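Pasting as-is:
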Amino acid sequence: MHTSALIVFLFWAQLLWINFCFGTRYTYSSIQPCEKCEENSKTFYEMENIKLCSRCALEYLSFNFATQDTKTIKFYMKDIIFHETNNNNNNTKHITWKMVSYAVDTIWTKTAIILEKRRKQKKSFNLFLLANEIWEQTFMKQKVLTRRVCAMCSLERFSLMKIQCCHKQICINCFFSIENKNCMLCNKKVCKDKKKLLISVCSAVQKILHLEEEVMKIMPKSVINNILEIKNDRPSLPTQQQIEEVIKYNNQKIVIPWSYILEPEKEFTKNIVISKDICSIFVSFATVSPQYAMYQHLDFMKNFQSLSLWILINTYLGSLILKSNPFHSSNLYEKQILPKELHDKIDDILHQTNRFLFNWMNFLFCYVFFGPDFYTNYQTVFLMLLFTPQMLFIHREVLKYIHDIAMKAILYEFY
């Protein structure tokens, strides 16, 4: 009797400790709408005084990964996976908490280096990757939770705003792309109440920047009206300038990175400063100039023209072989993850680098085995074909390596 009472006491003590440390989970007998995405659910998690469904809770933890305690994140992940698995209609067997806890701890240990690195860099982490990997490989053999997407562009976004016409949730980039003031989804006027619409956009921007949303509550109505310049004959949509004025009301030093807010997936591409044209010019100069310098003693009329023609053919033949490389895009899956601009930029820079190596490889080979006058025999240019398989193999392996680095940097991003 005493043993049973002790077990019950310890059980309730653990529940109270979990509730105190990690927050509250609500389970209703009937479905209720989520306070963020408004989708129906029976299970909710309270975060920042808002009741979120399982998907929105996992999104919140992913976006605020750097500021959340590891124990908190792991507990919520276990609880979400446990309830979503057992409540799923496709699941035929009951999953215990111990099984879920082991699966989460295992995958957390496997990705511990990446997780800790992103935490130190104060970056987000896409926890949906870990959760769905557990579901696919351990419990359900399929993905259970997917991220919310913009109703217009279908891109995954954490911060979405509800438009007033059809109450759909869209991203900030799609909002600013509305030109004729009519919604592309329902063809009705987007703006019914300009002030509420401004608050909605500002709230979405502030979430991305991790700013407090109290500024709208303390701003005098007269100030907001002056910013909006409300006129009955001009029901235009809020502009970026008006949004900046509201957000910077208390702090003018705030910098709003509009390029990241509108197109966050392109930020990694912008970090690669070298452009295709600059790289091509630099490689051409570094290839041709030293080769000319080795023959600076030649008579221009007799031999210099022959050398120039040999170098020209050698340069363009190497470039042509690399461009026709069957391993130029070694994996279609990489193209699905990497933005097209980034994928093309990596390919272009690597192509120019390998062109430099390819040209010098053939030039030095001919110089060593055929003597300094090799350029008089243009057939020696085609000896480049001897190095083609090796060069294409190197090109493929380096391309895969760089793509792997880029994918790891982008794959775990959560925006």
